[in-house]
Amino acid sequence: MTNMSINNKTALITGASSGIGKALASEFAKDGYNLVLAARGVVNMQAVADAIQKRHQVMVTVIGADLETQEGAAQLHADIKARGITLNALVNNAGYGTFGEFSQSALAPELAMMQLNMNTVVTLSKLFLPDLIATKGKLLNTASTAAFQPGPYMAVYYATKAFVLSFSEAIAAELEGTGVTVTALCPGPTASGFQDKADMHDSALVKGKKLPTSEEVAAAGYRAMRRGQRVFVPGAMNWVMAQSVRFTPRNMVTMMVKMMSRPVQPVH
Fold it and tell me: By the 8 A CB rule, do 126 and 46 touch?
C-alpha cells in the first residue's frame, strides 16, 4: 500500500456508482490518481470505492452529496476543501434522462435533471477552477451525441447536453494558455444503466441494439482527455452522425431523431 502515500494527483468524479462514471473512476485510478467520489448512496458507492482502492492501490474518498439540489454542488466543494484536498482533475459525469412525450411527462423529474445535468456542472466547474488552474489540471464533462441536435421524446435531456457541449467548448477557449484542458465526452447510446434510469428500453434508439460497453467508452474518453481534445465522440458511426447534422436541414434532423427514438410500443 506504499503507493497510496506518494500519489499526489486527485480527481473528483460525480456519478461514479455505475456505468461510464464507474469505468472512468477505474481509468483514473489505473493512471495513479487518488479519487473523490460523490454520491447520494454512500454505502453502495463505498463498495465501489473499496474495490478500486484494493485493485489500484490509490486512496478513494466517498462523500455524500445530493447534486440534484441547488445546494448540493456548493456543499460538496466545501466538504472537499474542508478535507484539505486540491483537485488535479474534475469529471462532471453525473446525469440522467427521461423518456416520453413532453406534454405527458412529470415536471419535477425534468427540473431535477436540469439541475444535475447543467447547474451542477457549472457550479462545480466554477468552484474548482482555481484548483485546476493551479495544478494545470483536466476538466472532463460528459455530454452526449444528443448534444448535436434536438431530441423528440427526450426533449429536455437533449437540451441539457447541448448546454454541456456549448459550455465546455466556450470555457476551453477561455482557458487556452493556462495549462487547463476541457474535454466534452459525447458518447452515443451505451450499455451503462442509463436506459434503466430513463425508462427508455422501448425506444427504437436502443431496443434490440448491441451497445458499446461503459468500459470501452470510458477508456476512449480518458485517452481523449489526456490528449486535451475538446470534443470527443466515441465510435465512427456516432462521429459521422454528429457531423452530418451540420449539413442537414434542422427540421429534417428533428424528424429523423423522432423516427429513431420513437417508442416501439406505448410508453407507460
Answer: no
